[in-house]
C-alpha cells in the first residue's frame, strides 16, 4: 500500500504536474492536449479507486496492478491515457454532454438556494442568540 501511495504521488501526480507546467509554459498545444487527456483519465481513475479500494484491496497484487496501470497511463510508448480518452471517455462524454451540463446547472442552482436558505437560518439563530445574551 505505502509503495503504491508514493508511486502514485510521484509518478501519478508530481511528474505529470511538472510536465503539464512545461507544456503550458512552452505553449505546445500537442503536449498540452496530451497532459489534459492524462489528467481527465487520472481523475476518473482516482474516483474509481475510491470505491474499488473498499472492495478489491484484498485481491492479490491489487496495488501492483494499480502501479502498472499508472505506469501504462504515463508511458510514451503505450500512450495509455490518450488511448483510454479517445476510445472511451471522449465518445461517452460527447454523447452525454448535454445531460451532464443540465445536471451541473441544476446542482449549482440547488446548492446556491440551499446556501442562501441555510445562511438565513444561521443568521436568525445567531441573531436570536445575541438578543438572548444581551437580555441576560
Main sheet properties: none
- The count of β-strands is 0
Query: What structural class results from the helix and strand content?
Result: mainly alpha
Q: Estimate percent helicity.
A: over 70%
**Which sequence of SSEs, written as H and E, runs from N to C?**
HHHH
Low-pLDDT runs of 5+ residues are none
Number of domains: 2
Round the Cα radius of gyration to an integer and report it: 22 Å
Shape: elongated
Oligomer: single chain
Mean pLDDT: 90
Measured between the Cα atoms of the first and last residue, the distance is 57 Å
What do you see in this structure?
- With 136 residues, this protein is mainly α.
- Helix content is 90%, strand content 0%.
- The chain contains four helices and no strands.
- Helix 1 (2-26) packs antiparallel against helix 2 (29-56), helix 1 packs parallel to helix 3 (62-74) and helix 2 packs antiparallel against helix 3.
- The longest helix is centred in the last third of the chain and has 56 residues, at 80-135.
- The protein is elongated.
- The model has no long low-confidence stretch (mean pLDDT 90).
- The chain crosses the membrane at residues 6-24, 36-61.
- Belongs to the DP1 family.
- One of its GO terms (cellular component) is cytoplasmic microtubule.
Amino acid at each position: 500500500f505505502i509503495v503504491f501511495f508514493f508511486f502514485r504521488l510521484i509518478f501519478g501526480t508530481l511528474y505529470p504536474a511538472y510536465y503539464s507546467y512545461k507544456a503550458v509554459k512552452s505553449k505546445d498545444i500537442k503536449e498540452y492536449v496530451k497532459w489534459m487527456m492524462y489528467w481527465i483519465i487520472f481523475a476518473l481513475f482516482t474516483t474509481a479507486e475510491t470505491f474499488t479500494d473498499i472492495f478489491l484491496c484484498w485481491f492479490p497484487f491489487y496495488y501492483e496492478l494499480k502501479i502498472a496501470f499508472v505506469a501504462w497511463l504515463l508511458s510514451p510508448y503505450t500512450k495509455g491515457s490518450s488511448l483510454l480518452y479517445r476510445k472511451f471517455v471522449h465518445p461517452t462524454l460527447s454523447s452525454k454532454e448535454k445531460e451532464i451540463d443540465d445536471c451541473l446547472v441544476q446542482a449549482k442552482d440547488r446548492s446556491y438556494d440551499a446556501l442562501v436558505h441555510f445562511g438565513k437560518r444561521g443568521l436568525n439563530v445567531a441573531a436570536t442568540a445575541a438578543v438572548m445574551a444581551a437580555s441576560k
